[in-house]
Automatic annotation (TrEMBL):
It comes from Saccharothrix longispora. Residues 32-142 form the Activator of Hsp90 ATPase homologue 1/2-like C-terminal domain. This is Uncharacterized protein YndB with AHSA1/START domain. Belongs to the AHA1 family. SUPFAM superfamilies: Bet v1-like.
Length: 174
């Protein structure tokens, strides 16, 4: 008998300062920050939940990352803007979707590490597609660490789209 998969919940928050929005999604791990950091930065571990990467992973350098869970598994270039192990990784990408500026911030207290993914938005347009994607990838990261089955994107999109679009609507001035 197959157990039903749990239904994922949208957790993202939209923070705005000076007109610019930050989409923030968090997850918590019973693990040291060093171990969570390794899952985010070591190519053999990122391959389990996002995709492998190749190149010189140093600040100011650009690496190639394969999006192994996307259709056609495309490669993309990712510039490493800041690498401050095991606390902060800031990267940026440029492609037909525009420029994406992302940060992962880790904070550890008593062996529990909170991971915050921050997507610095140039525009809030498309957040209904972007938000579910980040929820999916962070749950992929959780599953890869826990050794549980990887989630399915169909459980995130389009069902979470209204939640994320609502974050923008809730912030529109009256």
């Amino acid at each position: 008998m197959t157990r039903p998969r749990p239904t994922p919940s949208a957790t993202g928050r939209l923070l705005r300062a000076d007109g610019a929005g930050d989409l923030v999604i968090t997850r918590t791990f019973r693990a040291l920050a060093d171990d969570v950091w390794a899952g985010l930065t070591e190519p053999e571990r990122t391959a389990r939940w996002f995709g492998p990467w190749e190149g010189d992973g140093a600040p100011g350098r650009t690496v190639r990352v394969r999006m192994a869970h996307e259709e056609d598994q495309p490669w993309m270039e990712v510039r490493i803007d800041v690498c401050d192990p095991p606390r902060r990784l800031a990267v940026s990408t440029v492609d037909e979707a525009g420029t994406w500026r992302l940060e992962v911030l880790l904070s550890e207290v008593d062996g529990v590490t909170e991971l915050s993914l921050v997507h610095h938005l140039d525009t809030e347009e498309g957040i209904g597609e972007v938000g579910p994607g980040w929820e999916y990838y962070l749950d992929m990261f959780v599953a890869s660490r826990d050794g549980t089955p990887l989630p399915l994107f169909d459980d995130y999109y389009p069902s979470m789209k209204p939640y994320f679009e609502g974050l923008v609507a809730d912030r529109t001035p009256q």
